[in-house]
Amino acid sequence: MPQSPSLAAGRARPVTDLYAALSRQSEIALVVLLIVLILFFSIATEHFGTLRNLTNVLGQASLMMIAGIGVAIVFMSGEVDISVGSLQAAVAIPLIVLMNETGSLAIGLAGALCLGLIVGAINGYLSAYVGINSLIVTLGMLFILRGCVYLYTGKTAIPDDVYLDSFFAIGNERFLGVIPYPALIAFGLLALFMYVMRYRPFGRKVYAVGGNAEVARLAGHNVRAIKFTCFIISGVLGTVSGILLASRLGSAVHLSGLGFEFQVVAAVVLGGVSLSGGVGSLFGVALGVLILSYLSNGLGMLNLPTEWQLVITGSIIIVAVAFDELKRRRAG
Length: 332
Fold this sequence. Notes:
Blueprint: H1 5-44, H2 51-76, H3 84-102, H4 105-130, H5 134-153, E1 158-159, H6 165-172, E2 174-175, E3 179-180, H7 181-199, H8 201-211, H9 213-218, H10 223-249, E4 251-252, H11 260-270, H12 282-301, H13 306-331
Antiparallel strand pairs: 1-4, 2-3
Helix pairs in contact: 1-12, 2-7, 2-10, 2-11, 2-12, 3-4, 3-5, 3-10, 4-5, 4-10, 6-10, 7-8, 8-10, 11-12, 11-13
C-alpha cells in the first residue's frame, strides 16, 4: 500500500531533527574555532589583530561569502555548482565594456546580471529538467566561460576607462571609514537568505527536496522548479561577487576567479553543508568563509609558503567532508 505524503514526511522528521541538532553543534564548534584562530594569530603576529587588518580580511572574504550563499543553496537542494569562479571573470566583461561604451554604471550592472541569469538558467535547466548530472554541467560551464573569457580578452585585462566614482566605491570604499562596503553587502545578503531559508516556504522546500526528492514530490513540491531556482540564485550571487571583484581590480581581468570555486566549495563544506543535500545552514557557511579567510591571512603573516597554505586548506576540506559523512551515518 503506498505511503501518504504526510506519513512519509512524518517519518522523515526525526532524521531532520537529528540533522538540525548536529548542525547546531557544528556551528558552535566553528564559532569556537574562529575565535581561537583570531586569538592565536593576534598573539603570534604583530599586525593581525589590528582593526585595519581584520576589516581588510572581512572585505576580501565578502566575495567568497556572497558566492558561497548561492553555492550552498544549490548544495542544499541536492545539486552541485562549481562554475562560480569562471562566472566571476565572465560577468566583468559586459560590466566593464558596457560602462566604457555608455558611461553608465546601471547599464553595466544590468549587462552583468543578465549574463549571470543566463548562466544560472542554463545550469538549472540542464541539471533539473534535462537530467544531466549537475557536477558535469557546471564543470563544463566552468571551462566554457573561462575559454570565452580568454577568447574575448585575448588574455589581456580590459580596463575601466570611465573611472566612475560610484563603481570604485562599491568595491573599495568603507562605511564610516571602517567597514568595507562589500562586507555590508555580504552580511545584508546573508541575513536576507538566512531568513528565506529558515522562515519562508521556499527555504523549507529546498531542504525537503535536498533531503529526499521523492518524498518532496509526493508532498506536492515541484522538485525541478525548486532546483532550477536554486541555480538562478547561485548565478545572480556569483555575479554580485564578480561585480565587486571587478570594482576592486578596476578592470575585467581574464584570470579573475581562477580557483575561486574551490575556495567557495571548501568554505561551504567546512560550514556544515552536506554534499548529499538537505542539510546545512548559511550561518555555518559564513563561519566557514571567515575561518578560511582569517586562516589564510594569518598563515601569510607567519610567512608560511603558499604551497603549505594549500596543503592546510586541502586537509581542512577532507576533514570537513569526513565529518559530513560521519553525520550522515549517525542520522542513518
